[in-house]
Structure formats: C-alpha cells, structure tokens
Amino acid sequence: MRKHLFIVLIILLYYFCVQPLFAQKLKSVRIGILEALNSSDTVANERFRQGYEGSIYYSIGRNEKRLFECGYKFEVAYKYFDLSDKLSAKETAIELAKTNPWIVYGPRRSGHFLSAMIGLTNIPFVSSMANAKKVTDLSPPLFTMSHSLDEVSEATVYAINKEKFGNRYGSIVDGNCTFCRDSEKAFDFIANQRNFEKNLIFIFLKQILITMR
How open is the CA angle 193-153-129, to the nearest 5 degrees? Predict the structure, then answer.
C-alpha cells in the first residue's frame, strides 16, 4: 500500500511541478533598435553605442524573471545607420521591418525619425528625444517620449527670466536640420510673447550664412 502511495505521489509531483517546466514554451517578443550609431562615423559614436547597448541588456535582465513568469522573452534586433547619410535611416528601417519587430525604439534626432517611419508601416515606433513639431503632431503608432518644443521653449524662457539673464537673444541654426528650425520658430514665438528682443546682428549673420551656401 505504501509503495503504491509513493508511486502515486511521484506521478503527481511530476505532473504538477516538473512537466510544466518542459511544457512551457516562451513566446519571443522582438524589439527593434534603430539609431544613427554606425561605428564607422566616429570613435565617440562607438563608445556611445557600447553604453547604449549595455543599458538595453541591463533593462532586459532586470525584467527577465517577470517576463519568464508571464511566458515571454525579449529578443533584440539592432540596426544602425550612418549619421550623415540622409537616406540611410529609411533604408535601414526597411531592413529592420523584415525581422517583424513588435515595436521599434527609434532615432533620437527628429530628421532621422521622420525618414525612418516611412519604412516602418503599421509598426509601433518610439523615439526618446525627437521633438520637432512634425514628430509631436504624429498619430499612433508613432510616438516620442520627449516634451514638445513649445514646452521646452516655455521652460527656457521661464529659467532665463528667473535667473535675470536679460531679454535680448539671437539664434543661428542649420537650415538642413528640421529640429533646429522648429526650435528657433518655437522659441521666437514664446519669446515674443514675453517681450524678448531678438538681436539684429544675429539675424544679419544668419542671412549671410544662408547666402553663402
């Protein structure tokens, strides 16, 4: 009798404890990483890339146990493009889309983000820093975690007034930079409401630089 009872207990133990470990199949969730971190650009870019990837591995490791308990595991697909190549972001995004990512964590720069989104049809796409107006005006599944340029401009003007730095300013921006142009426009709008004065010397220098292109 005891022998039979022992065999039954072993069978039950196997059924409820051991078997689920073999039966459980984790579902892979692929996360795409898209950034201007081609190591051939600069040495500094290589160092940033190593730190960037390290932070991702750390984050996944911190949540690995919880994901396992829910039946999931993360897979990361890295795709890097050239910083200075205007078409590289879109082309690399198209390649990344072929890996069927669940979500893509995208470029920090607005221009790269706007270019890359063309190659990621119907895939959730998130940037940590892009905040040009064309980015913040986008609808889901396109997102940014950054504040809008209007909010940044409001905070900047508030800080300037608080520290009593004065109310005269000037700006020279890169005409090829979407974020730069939007930043200038947003700040000019807020500064004008707060009675700031734009220095004419900077306006003159800006026109010279535009003419020299």
Answer: 155
